[in-house]
Amino acid sequence: MHIYASSTVIGIGHAVWQSLSLAFAMFWEILWALILGFGLSAAVQAVVSKREMTRLLPDDSPKSISIACGLGAASSSCSYAAVALARSIFRKGANFTAAMAFQFASTNLVIELGIIMIVLMGWQFALAEFIGGPIMIVILALLFKVFLTPRLVEAARRQADKGVKGIMEGHAEMDMAVMEGPLLKRMFSEKGRTAISHYFVMDWAAVWKDIAVGLLLAGALGATVPHAFWQRFFLTSHPVFATLWGPLVGPLVAILSFVCSIGNVPLAAVLWNGGISFGGVIAFIFADLIVLPILDIYRKYYGMKVSVFLFATFYAAMVGASLLVEFLFEAVGLIPATHTAKVLEASITFNYTSVLNIIFLIAAALLLLRFFRTGGLAMLKMMDDSSAHGHHHDHSRHAGNHETQA
After folding, report:
1. Comparing C-alpha atoms, which of 210, 255, 130, 199 is closest to residue 374?
2. Is 17 inside any structural domain?
């Protein structure tokens, strides 16, 4: 009995070690890409103001939806911040459909998502994401046009105006964009470099938990779940059914995983290696806006009836867009022939990845140093403080007061 118990403990310990090792190896594989993605996103946010969003999104016309997509793609990839900012601009007068389109673009069309997908899974998945994202938003806008009634919008507005607190609302309201002068001059000015450092650190602070959970969950599943289980679950022996089943079940797996934002990409890689269809992978990644914690935020922000409506329409748009992407990529021969994402074979060796990680870690350290020397720590403390919302428009001026010290 004692020998059996000892072997069980050893077996569990080995499984835990394998899971953690795989999770860290995947983190090392994507670290430089994360830093690059967040850096580029911070640079864009530093020159794109959130203050104009309400004025630019007055209705659900194709022009407003297109602008919402562009603004979303230029914003933070944090799902919670995107949901909070969508409510904020809706309360200030933006059209509800346009606000939801902005929310979708904020998590599905951002730079860092594409970079991580290329590194872990391949360029085909990133291309599918950036083609499928706009398709999904168009489907959503059409569904809203047919099923969203004025009564539902009014109910959403009444609940939104109550100002019930969610998550990352301070981060969503933060606006430090530099708007004076030519684009490059703004970006490389003292204020511009300070804004970039602040957005960089605060975006990391917003999503690091999701990234950590996603890597740990992917490591655990990749190291412990037999390949045969995934093949049975995703119906790989029935190719036609698997093509339809993947987009239907992908979002449901995402809902139960609790992982949102770019943190779900490592888990998507595990599912792809396990046999889920190409469209199923895309649907899984799309579904970061219907994970359980965010569904609960919809209930707080807009009420139960509207949150159910959002879940139903979001799910339908995700499934529909993923199926269309699957059929399109199959027709042009862009679906990878083998399920070999860079996850099960991830390992730490001194190669080009290590060199890139060292270079980008130095760049991150410089941004972090500027962040601390320009009042960033005080801003970080109030980032998720709803009582501080009234001060967010003064952040750039507050940071500017420290620039002579930087």
Report:
1. 199
2. no
